[in-house]
């Protein structure tokens, strides 16, 4: 599974948490600069993870709309590893053999 992570200057232990939950590849955007709004969301992703305490507000709205348009699951979490792990564990779309990968899902 591939995830787009938006937010957070550094990821710290987040890649390990993702790996434990079957997300073996990720693309990371820092998300703090205005120019990030013009970036195009890759089409080869299975989910979007927004670290909302380290992201420019308008970019969060753009990502949310884009995830709905692409019909890709989108999870909003703090940058804390524990919060992200909890959100991924609750999310039934985030397992290795997910049957719901392409369904709409937004977790707040």
TrEMBL record:
Pfam families associated with the record: DUF2325
Domain of life the protein comes from: Bacteria
Similarity field: Belongs to the UPF0751 family.
Name used for this protein in its record: DUF2325 domain-containing protein
């Amino acid at each position: 599974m591939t995830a787009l992570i938006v937010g957070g200057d550094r990821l710290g232990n987040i890649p390990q948490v993702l790996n434990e939950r079957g997300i073996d590849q990720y693309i990371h955007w820092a998300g703090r600069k205005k120019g990030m709004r013009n970036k195009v969301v890759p089409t080869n992703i299975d989910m979007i993870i927004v670290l909302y305490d380290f992201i420019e507000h308008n970019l969060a709205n753009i990502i949310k709309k884009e995830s709905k348009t692409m019909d890709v699951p989108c999870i909003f979490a703090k940058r804390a590893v524990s919060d992200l792990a909890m959100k991924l564990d609750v999310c039934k779309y985030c397992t290795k053999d997910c049957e719901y990968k392409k369904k709409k899902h937004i977790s707040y």
